[in-house]
Design brief:
With 415 residues, the protein is an alpha+beta fold. It contains 14 helices and 16 strands. A hairpin with a 3-residue loop joins strand 6 and strand 7. The radius of gyration is 31 Å and the shape is elongated.
């Protein structure tokens, strides 16, 4: 009966109430959307690489090494020698070590030069290993494996040829067009930077940048075969990832890398570097969240003003309720229930807005920004936020509710 009375009262004022509901829904959609994307971005970054104890590169900051070696963001400060990599890879404490070489691109997609066992050891998420959607790993110098997004976006398949470019620009005039690569494999989607990456062998990377004996030949001439591949001597790489047999020796091994006398190196723990990255981005995250809070607060103030302004027009309604025996406390809670109903409708509409936006822009965010946004927007943090929204809505209606209560108390005392 009480709930039905509140619903009928809101329906009678559907014009002003509708505007308040829309404002509430938009503010809630912004609040929930920002929170959902923030959580998804963190999840995407955190799940990019797993099962790696240390990442070693030239002397630089921890965050910079993490960004360019794992997320393909930024540029390395310097290369490291192949000799240094071999020294550490041969250490009896090392389970496996995988080198990577960066610096080239294909239509804006980063190129990674590496070795075949990269696809055996590299893992993402909760130790999920890479798998092939079609084809297999490269076995010759001028063969290439594509991330799923690269193949889908550019329309490549097994047997197609691609040309790499020097640098990371989408448009480059420094093409390695004398050495086209043949697509031999496409990886399954991972929702990580792997999907936007082009993989070639270290020998292939070195060959297109070195003074190859056949460099003067055209792209249509025969390419170096696997036998000639052994003539390509790798001199430098960008970084390497390694896993230790005993993780208890990680910090000692890290210090040994930092104190390496042959050349200045940096060794990072991916998880620690990622925590540093979140520290740098915390200010931006908090700024977006604060703006969302202000938007929602404005909607609450608008709802409170709407309820307060409607009291004068509801004088007759209030008198009728008093006549049938409604106490000032009942009128107080009637206003509060109306505010909660507006908030509940706003929550459902806001959730619907966010779901629709994710449905239409999910692929766009993945292709353009590499952000995989899940459709499930309900989580523990979102649940707490929805509860806080209801509390805020209740509190924002205190002013008009208390006004009605005091007004009817005064009338009761006068009578």
């Amino acid at each position: 009966m009480f709930l039905k009375l509140a619903i009928n009262s809101l329906i009678d004022r559907k014009g002003a109430v509708s505007l308040s509901v829309v404002a509430m829904a938009i503010s809630i959609a912004i609040l929930l959307g920002v929170e959902h994307i923030r959580q998804e971005v963190k999840q995407n970054f955190s799940s990019t690489v797993s099962g790696v104890d240390l990442i070693v590169g030239a002397r630089t900051s921890n965050v910079n090494l993490l960004l360019y070696s794992v997320f393909r963001i930024g540029a390395p400060t310097n290369n490291i020698s192949w000799k240094s990599f071999k020294n550490f890879a041969a250490d009896p404490r090392v389970d496996w070590a995988v080198p990577i070489s960066l610096g080239d691109s294909h239509k804006g997609h980063g190129v990674v030069g590496t070795v075949p066992n990269y696809f055996d050891h590299f893992s993402y998420g909760k130790n999920n290993h890479l798998a092939f959607y079609e084809g297999a790993v490269f076995t010759e110098a001028f063969e290439v494996v594509l991330g799923f997004e690269v193949a889908s976006r550019e329309g490549y398949g097994i047997g197609d040829t691609i040309v790499l470019a020097h640098g990371m620009s989408e448009v480059s005039f420094a093409l390695h067009d004398k050495y086209p690569f043949t697509v031999v494999g496409v990886l399954e989607p991972t929702a990580t930077p792997v999907d936007r990456t082009v993989y070639i062998s270290l020998a292939g990377m070195e060959a297109i940048h070195s003074d190859w004996p056949n460099k003067s030949t055209s792209a249509t001439d025969s390419l170096p075969n696997q036998e000639k591949l052994g003539q390509v001597k790798v001199e430098q790489i960008t970084a390497f990832m390694l896993k230790l047999k005993n993780r208890l020796s990680t910090f000692k091994f890290q210090n040994e890398v930092k104190n390496y006398h042959e050349e200045p190196l940096t060794a990072i723990l991916p998880g620690v570097a990622l925590s540093e990255l979140w520290g740098f981005t915390a200010l931006i995250e908090n700024s977006f969240f604060l703006v969302s809070i202000f938007v929602f607060t404005s909607a609450c103030v608008g709802m409170s003003a709407m309820l307060f302004s409607s009291i004068r027009d509801r004088t007759r309604e209030m008198k009728l309720l008093r006549i049938v025996g409604a106490s000032p406390s009942v009128l107080f809670f009637l206003i509060e229930v109306e505010a909660l109903l507006i908030a509940l409708v706003g929550i459902f509409l806001g959730l619907g807005f966010v779901f629709i936006l994710i449905f239409f822009f999910q692929d766009y965010l993945l292709i353009e920004y590499g952000i995989s946004v899940g459709k499930n927007i309900l989580s523990q943090s979102v649940g707490k936020m929805l509860f806080a929204i209801l509390i805020m809505s209740f509190l924002s209606a205190l002013v008009p509710s208390f006004y009605v209560y005091r007004k009817n108390i005064s009338l009761q005392q006068t009578q």
